[in-house]
């Protein structure tokens, strides 16, 4: 009953006229930027992060939720119409959706993706509203050593699961942790790694790092490639709406995708890639038309797209209740919280319930707005996809630069933006994942604070870090997650050598 009351109060916040405007602007901008080729939700949120720093915190975070969901929706449009996934979780959508588009069924493919996103997003948000309070109760039992162990688990899982090489992920993480040391130490008051530059005393701005790595780095990477495989935008032929047979073949994959996506997305190493691939495999096995897979099966769009959006809602549960990002987009959203000096976690539900429950309720509103807004505007998105690549990335550079200057007018900030952009380009060039670096910068100072508190309680003894059953369990899981990829890789090499 308490959850119903809290959610009802959240709707009172989310349905305020100004917050409805924020939600509408968020879903529109999220779809607008997310539908562009090569620009996924993480880059969408990072690109729009600097322009929200002067807005009302609740309205701004509601807009971020809309941007997040809009970016996820836009990625499916790109995948279906030009066979260019905005992120790895949309690869399956591109596989079947683009085949449907080439067969003249782009309309039903876009419709099942949109409706599947709506169904999955709504059900997953209901799960978020009812399960999050229980996770908060568990989190309130955590001591400093438990929080430190939880952050270590987040570091390891994010580093090990992003990219093809766990070692490269860990390297990116340590770069982010090092950047997190820059500035004034909160406990001792000493300046660290500032090199006499006053602008660094407050530390590295997460916004500058995120925009540099994602936006500037992506633009430089695209420009560095001399030959582009230009994908033809598939025209939308016939009706946009699904037939009765399409509905019959889609509704069960929507539900199965939701059941897969939400719990896996909420795990520290979950993400959206695993449930989308699982959904595709399950739908192929359960389908009455397995021969259509690989040639444009509608189940191959409906299930994975539902799993993708349910996982997006799932990532918000550890973010809101524990303050832990489990995806690149969640890491950028955490930066959005922190620019208002708001730290997500169990105490936030007690200290600012209107903000938390207003944000959760706004997810229902954003889902409804997306389905009403985007299907009639498909023609606009198709025209947008024809934007020449040089114009597109020149616009991104201008937008990123002006946004960063608006947030922090300093030439030092611009120099750092350029430096981070070059680092982002180099990381892309050599297949280093970017998300662990952002997570390291955001969570590094928090992990350091919890570690020092735990050591102070036990008078400097490191044994205090493993005396708590929760901390010991989490550190064991972190060690397992760290060692497992190397063991699996070694076993695969051993088997290949035997063959």
TrEMBL record:
Swiss-Prot/TrEMBL keywords: Membrane, Transmembrane, Transmembrane helix
PANTHER family xref list: TRICARBOXYLIC TRANSPORT PROTEIN
Q: Which organism is it from?
A: Devosia psychrophila
Q: What is this protein called?
A: Putative tricarboxylic transport membrane protein
By its UniProt entry, which InterPro entries does this protein fall under? DUF112_TM
Query: Where would I find the DUF112 domain in this sequence?
Result: 20-438
Can you tell me where the transmembrane regions are? 20-49, 61-82, 113-135, 147-163, 169-187, 354-378, 390-407, 414-430, 470-488
Q: Which domain of life is it from?
A: Bacteria
Signal peptide limits = none
